[in-house]
Amino acid sequence: MSTGNSGSKATQARQARTRNEPWRNWAGNVTARPVREVTPASVEELSAAVRSAAADGLKVKAVGTGHSFTAAAATDGVLIRPQLLTGIRNIDREANTVTVEAGTPLKRLNLALAREGLSLTNMGDIMEQTVSGATSTGTHGTGRESASISAQIKGLELVTADGSVLTCSEKENPEVFAAARIGLGALGVITAITFAVEPIFLLTAREEPMTFDRVTSDFDALYAENEHFEFYWFPHTGNCNTKRNNRSAGPEAPVSRFSSFLEDELLSNGLFQAVNSLGRAVPSTIPSIAKISSRALSARTYTDIPYKVFTSPRRVRFVEMEYAVPRAALVETLRELKSMVDRSNLRISFPVEVRTAPADDIALSTASGRESAYIAVHMYKGTPYQAYFTAAERIFTAHEGRPHWGKVHTRDADYFSTVYPRFGEFTELRDRLDPDRLFANDYLRRVIGD
Q1: Which is the most buried residue in 56, 185, 213, 340, by most CB within 10 A?
Q2: What is the mean pLDDT of the chain?
Q3: What residues pair up with 298 in beta bridges, in sequence order?
Q4: How many angstroms separate the CA atoms of 34 and 103, rounded?
């Protein structure tokens, strides 16, 4: 197999090997059996792998850490693993940008940026994903003015279906840039991303219990008064936990080691794992557990650098569905969800997460062209989730909801063509960049057609 480098036996071994074990995602709900697996150590090797797959009549998909709950990265062809394409290529302090290899985990990027006195403006609540995986599916945090990770992209480099390397930005190939920032892996394999960054800053986080009725009645004010506002509602209760993050002049006042262990590890992970296991075994205990869980975390305030405030460890495995609805429709949608749960026989042990995002200009962003609010529903791994997710999805779609591309949903291309005004723009670009559907799989055939 040609590699584009020296062609040594060691390089060829790194480039491709037959995969004997199936690939599974983080949640364990998606399995794939690729014919072979490739771990390129350079853009040239990746280009050669794409050309070789095309010559062999095999489909190609790149996979990061498998944190998507959909089969967005699944393939029965060639599985590209980008873990050797990592690290920062360049920091431009005048332009306030950093260019990073596609396989770099967000965790490593955040640590490296902090050492350089820099930070992303906003981020999601976990940082295990690769930068390419996170951006390709539209990973986001919460923000009044600051948007998703993809919206912070200033440039992209990707290998297209013919093995060539294409770069894009607002000025270079702008039509590709408008789509590829959330490209679902349909336009090519991303090899590097240039992000906007800024000098590192401090955030003060205020976490506080609040009733469901108060959060929903005061939501517009809470949203307007805080740079980053989010909350969790505990089904079977009228209780929520809220979190407000705002920029601070300091001084730093991080979470104490004891508080971090007690609340972030013992309660939010260790004990939460145990009570979910109990709830899975004995569903009738879940409403009582929910009432206790919703009161377990106390109010606290702390000040730290961004990634230590935005992100937190998530060790309890689950399956998730998340929809973006117009921000103005959030309260009505959430009240309908609560009413549905209250009337049903469902037993939900995971809290419902609510976040917001400003409108952006990315073709397939869940916030494309409209201010959005996100409602995420979860079920503990191994617990039947279909009835809950089906009922929730019926509510979300009634409000023109757009599902997160990396989370469980049942929508198809016909639906997306009605809720994304620029859907046709994306599919036309795909026709140009990948006319033979080298990067297709069953998931893409469903959500963007064939």
Answers
A1: 185
A2: 93
A3: none
A4: 19
